Amino acid sequence: MTADVAVETTPEIPLWNDPAQPVAARVDALVAAMTLPEKIAQLYGVWVGASDKGGEVAPHQHDMEEPVDLDALVPAGLGQLTRPFGTVPVDPALGALSLMRSQARITSAGRFAIPAVAHEECLAGFAAWGATAYPVPLSWGATFDPDAVRRMAAAIGRDMRSVGIHQGLAPVLDVVRDARWGRVEETIGEDPYLVGTIGTAYVRGLESAGIVATLKHFVGYSASRAGRNLAPSSVGARERADVLLPPFEMAVREGGTRSVMHAYTDVDGVPAAADETLLTGLLRDTWGFEGTVVADYFGIAFLKTLHGIAGDWAGAAGAALGAGVDVELPTVKTFGAPLVEAVTEGRVPEALIDRALRRVLGQKAELGLLDADWSPVPPALDGVDLADPEALRGSIDLDRPENRELAREIAEKAVVLLSNDGTLPLTRPRRIALVGPNATEATAVLGCYSFPRHVGVQHPQVPVGIDLPTLRDTLTAEFPEAEITVARGTGVDDGDLTGIGEAVDAARGADVVVAVLGDRAGLFGRGTSGEGCDAESLALPGAQQQLLDALLDSGTPVVTVLLAGRPYALGRAVAESAAIVQSFFPGEEGTAALAGVLGGRTSPSGRLPVSVPGGAGAQPTTYLGARLAHASEVSSIDPTPAFGFGHGLTYTTFAWSDLVAHTKEAPTDGEFSLELTVRNTGERHGTEVVQLYLHDPVASVVQPVQRLIGYTRVPLAPGEARRVRVEVPADLASFTGRDGRRVVEPGDLELRFAASSTDPRLTATVALTGAERRVDHTRRLHAVFTQEAVEGA
């Protein structure tokens, strides 16, 4: 079998195939040898689906594209293969074989034998049938644990690389500005520093496995008006610079990312896909990014169809190329025949083609795809007998025990205990009423970009491919002696009230009620959370609030459990629930993680990456706002959250004390040194998350009341104490001044050590002295935390 996929080489290796030569020289030689159609062919992808029989991939038909003739395209070459595993359910081994055969076909058809880059989604794990479904990014943010996220990303990357994938379309670095937006579940949170640190950790993990990480969506997508998908974004230059851009800047500078995806949105009338100042001026010329910029799916065509800044496909292609977009995804549209014709007629300079081509080929050289000894056989099939494809079925496991263990670690660390009157942890309950639409729904733990919710729902006859225990299953295992009565009550969003009476009867006959509410992930209106599933308000979907209120009236303690993709207003439950447990689509191990928290086997340590609103209509409720964005006497709308950003309880107590500011004054190019003691004063092991916020009382432009500038997790045994030290560079006080440049101003500052944005514990007043100082993208980005055990504690 391997003989028919061998790449033919000559005794004299062409310069571009010689890995001993500099990449730039190899690329230049190849560009010079290519015809215009061959050049352009490297700048687009084709959306395909792998064959479950191990045959070659087949073009995927989509209602936003015309049918593609792969036979006609491949002789000129092909830049990318779009989602060979993430289009239809396919056994991983047979999918790898299918991709291998397709790569052999591509290389044998073209003059230069250049393989395609194969990319996949990986927002909640490798989006392939049978692959581990990890928690969604909002849960990553809830962990406040970059190292755990880095290890998860590395595991995802290894699985992708093993079957022949080169590029992953993650992470999402959009900062939440309005929780009504359907894609909140795909984000990491509402604070740019949290998004930046967690997102950069994910990039490092993915890249460490040899997968090209793709930052998205650059930039402004999450700031759309009223949280509507693809709506215009009304943000000023300062909000863009100080809130939306920092996570991307951090991931480019520190993460080693090799790709960026432009956003769909327009900011002040300029679509990101046609914004040269953004994609070239800032990203490349200022930040020094050297990788590829890829289009969000159909985003270049949208310049004509949705944005109206191009009159034809060639105009859209020229605008995107001129701005700095290198690759059209998911499939060929504007970069095909229209672009060839436009270059031939002189409407688009060939120099723009060559600029993008050099970036694409340079990346392929780095991936080894131009090397003379490149083989299409992926690592998972190396040395395997490929003569009988059916014998391969089931031979590649993308959901190994170590994956599930890591998925459970992330899920456990992401569970947020919002409130608790002492009912939790449950101590040997005799009778549990398990109520709600998500109590027995296996896929309630999955986000919209997980394979079962993204693709599997279109193939109901195909098994889900992974083990998805319901909360009923895991609670039964956690409390084997308890009598568990199940009542649906109502659906997620059907508004059905007929089952509420049965649910209340179950509640009255129980010692405790576990009400499992929340979302159903989906796409474009087929769910309550996910891409295109925007919400008019942050009231619980359907009749879930009516169900919850009826349960609260039953007289039995109610533990409210949320499996959701965004935060919701909970009405009376904020004050009247015995406890509230928030989990953001925690993945395949999510119900086990929840059962562990409910039963006390695990002490919760998650913190809110987004605020939980106090009211359903008070948007936006992000903590990151100026004084007038918060409650005031000049507005009848109170946006104060029920639970603020960074909030989370555990099953022990902590005392914070002995704050010392070793440096109370520092020059505008200096740093402050502080330390404090955190002690576990309870009887159980627990983890405190020390959060550091900066408050700037007087500045030359309006500032947020406070903003997160650092955090650290502090695990402590009962009675144990740690001395937490932090060095805070003055650069962290910088902001975009009136002239559009970043500045550090002298003056007083407050450094607030807090358990959340609404729970400051210790505050140090410090001062920056000396002259105002300009800083740029080379500024320091982090406060440096260290910890030391307190002797005798």
Automatic annotation (TrEMBL):
<dbReference type="InterPro" id="IPR002772">
    <property type="entry name" value="Glyco_hydro_3_C"/>
</dbReference>
<dbReference type="Pfam" id="PF14310">
    <property type="entry name" value="Fn3-like"/>
</dbReference>
<dbReference type="InterPro" id="IPR036962">
    <property type="entry name" value="Glyco_hydro_3_N_sf"/>
</dbReference>
<dbReference type="Pfam" id="PF01915">
    <property type="entry name" value="Glyco_hydro_3_C"/>
</dbReference>
<comment type="similarity">
    <text>Belongs to the glycosyl hydrolase 3 family.</text>
</comment>
<dbReference type="InterPro" id="IPR036881">
    <property type="entry name" value="Glyco_hydro_3_C_sf"/>
</dbReference>
<protein>
    <submittedName>
        <fullName>Glycoside hydrolase family 3 N-terminal domain-containing protein</fullName>
    </submittedName>
</protein>
<dbReference type="InterPro" id="IPR001764">
    <property type="entry name" value="Glyco_hydro_3_N"/>
</dbReference>
<dbReference type="InterPro" id="IPR013783">
    <property type="entry name" value="Ig-like_fold"/>
</dbReference>
<dbReference type="InterPro" id="IPR050288">
    <property type="entry name" value="Cellulose_deg_GH3"/>
</dbReference>
<feature type="domain" description="Fibronectin type III-like">
    <location>
        <begin position="688"/>
        <end position="757"/>
    </location>
</feature>
<dbReference type="GO" id="GO:0016787">
    <property type="term" value="F:hydrolase activity"/>
</dbReference>
<dbReference type="InterPro" id="IPR026891">
    <property type="entry name" value="Fn3-like"/>
</dbReference>
<dbReference type="Pfam" id="PF00933">
    <property type="entry name" value="Glyco_hydro_3"/>
</dbReference>
<dbReference type="InterPro" id="IPR017853">
    <property type="entry name" value="GH"/>
</dbReference>
<keyword id="KW-0378">Hydrolase</keyword>
